[in-house]
Amino acid sequence: MTIDDLDARLIALLAAEPRLGVLECSRRLGVARGTVQARLDRLMDRGVITGFGPDVSPAALGYGVTAFVTMEIRQVAGHDPVADRLAAIPEVLEVHTITGDSDLLCRVVARTNADLQRVIDLIVDVRGVLRTNSIIALDTPVPYRVLPLVADVPRREGRRS
């Protein structure tokens, strides 16, 4: 699914100010309220916009350590059973299946380095996990972002609204 310039501007506006209503978005974008609502509905139906929830900082909740853990798993039943068990660990924020020497990559948080050991022990205890490797993140100079992609789509597609 591609987006046009109006979609990109709408997404950027809501990313900057997620509490804006449809009417205020229409006013700021200079288009009809119905246009904004239709665009939002379409973007949500197609899975471009996946939510409007607040972004929460794990560090502000006391989880100051972020680490990435790769895993080799026993693949008899596939990735899903292991991923389901990992999802039961609150400190596991994301699980990705990956290529290469490992099978899964997790982003995890912990309160301290000692607490990270507890989290890794929970991961290792998951049935199907054979081996882990962890890397502690020291800083996040480029945090998770998608707005550069959103802004780039209309340009790359050569279209406007």
TrEMBL record:
> Which PROSITE patterns does the UniProt record give?
HTH_ASNC_2
Matching entries from SUPFAM superfamilies are given as: Dimeric alpha+beta barrel, Winged helix' DNA-binding domain
InterPro entries linked: AsnC-type_HTH_dom, Dimeric_a/b-barrel, Tscrpt_reg_AsnC-like, Tscrpt_reg_AsnC/Lrp_C, WH-like_DNA-bd_sf, WH_DNA-bd_sf
* Gene3D superfamilies the UniProt entry points to: 3.30.70.920, Winged helix-like DNA-binding domain superfamily/Winged helix DNA-binding domain
Annotated HTH asnC-type domain residues: 3-64
Q: Does the keyword DNA-binding apply?
A: yes
Highest taxon listed in the record's lineage:
Bacteria
Query: What are the UniProt keywords, alphabetically?
Result: DNA-binding, Transcription, Transcription regulation
Q: Which Pfam families match?
A: AsnC_trans_reg, HTH_24
Q: Which PANTHER family match?
A: LEUCINE-RESPONSIVE REGULATORY PROTEIN, TRANSCRIPTIONAL REGULATOR AZLB
The name on file for this protein is Lrp/AsnC family transcriptional regulator
